[in-house]
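ok trying again, last paste got cut off:
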Amino acid sequence: MLRSAQQRLLLYWIFLLLPALGIGTGSIWLLHREQSRILAQDQLNRQNRLAAVAARARLIAENLDTLVVDVQNGLMATLRAAPADASENFLRDWQSSNPFVRAAAGFPSQKISSAPSGTDSALAAWAATGPWQNDSSARLFANNLSATNDIDNSLLYQSSRANLQNISSFNKPAASPQAAEESSPPQFATPPRADSGWSPWLDPQQKLHLFGWHQTAAGEILTVAVNLDRLQRELAQALPVQLEPDESYTLRSHEGRPLATVGHSSARESYPSLSRKISSAPPTPDAIAPLSSQTLPGWSVQGFLRPASTFIAPTFFYTSSLLVALCVLTILGGGALLLRQARRSEAESAQKTSFVANVSHEFKTPLTTIRLYAELLEQERVREPAARADCLRVIARETQRLARLVNNVLDFSRLEQGRKKFARESVDLENFLRAALARLAPRLAEAGLRLDLQLPEFPLRLDTDPDALEQILLNLVENACKYAASGGELAVSLRAVPAASGPAAAEITVADRGPGIPAAQRERIFEKFLRLDNSLTATQSGTGLGLSIARQLARGLGGDLRVTPRPGGGSCFILSLS
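nice, full thing came through this time. structure:
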């Protein structure tokens, strides 16, 4: 059956471990649920953001289609306003003055046998196919597109649109009111006319061209090739500026070449005013919105959403679990420290209780002896002079023993409270040792120990506290009388220490021939209340304070007290003084 202390210890750990482990397990379970919720919410947010990017990409593509149609309508209105009698000069002047016109040419009839000299090669190759003879090639787009919800983007788009209409339709000659009416920018809902149209065309080198044509009343075919490089720059200026920080959009040609990119911090840093950058887009778009096949086939607006941070997914759970584990370990560590402190306090309490019992017993023994012999002398039961002298010697010896006990208790109390004061004076150590050992001779004789005193040839003086020094020596001798009496010898020596050997000036050595002290216990014997658990200490009374007080007094004097094994058996206590 477990002892009471062990039962308390077991219950303590049970009541500490179970709540701590329960809190840790519950916290990790809640963290796992929270991580799942965060991941689900993050995925939903990601899907919503992807849908928003796709919608914005479609809206941008529709806006760009509208701008291209505005350019086509403006160019076509100018083409229709060309004078019938001077179309060649008009087209030449128009080509040189309108930035959206790459080339312009007139053909005398619908069937072209040969292009006029100086005609753009791509335009001539396209005209040779006779696209105006096919009704399906006549395309004048009707668009009625919704504007963006973003005010800044809408204003930029409207500004770009008005600018394109002005540029594409400028440089028109004066005309009759009817011609002016025809040359006004057409409404988006205007249906296509059979005498004009637009035709995107890929040449053999897979280069895209955008051609327009108009057949005059006289049957002449007037054609125009749009300057796609200028159109591209204008479309780039019409891309939206105000975007979410994690969005970017790229306008790509039919060849897959990026023409303009807006969005992300890197783009805004390069072009802070328009937040656009001509560069390579990320490899995989999150949304693709193609432009109309009747305006710029193969061109598209690609939307990109910056990848979500991967911190929340794995790191949130592991970091939080680590913090929970640290909290649990802190609780267990704090509990262990409290338990250790409680056990130390319990052990010290038990030691103090034992100390009080031992001190009481130690006081009681000499007091009983003194009282007994004093009563014998008082009642004159001892009449022989020699016996009376023996009684007086016993009383003196027990009185000295009692004085030593009282001094130890008082020194222990002062040292524990930090109130011990040392009165230093110049002491002749040789004379001091002779006198102190002479007072201890009866105790040595009672223990059966022969004293071997070794002193230096020259006097050795030192500033120290003689009372504290005598208390140290008394405790060492008393310790030898209790535990090393079987050796029959006690060697006490004094020697000067050279200055080069250390701070100590002198050493007093007390060596016995007792059973010795194990190496693992040589430091522990200086702990207060400690008595080694063996048969020798069990048969001897004591408080366990003598060596502890001796070391504390030695260190208070600026020295130290240590123990080493004595060659040949026994222990050697070395008192260093400075």
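cool. The domain at 426-577 is CATH 3.30.565.10 (Heat Shock Protein 90). The two ends are 55 Å apart (CA to CA).
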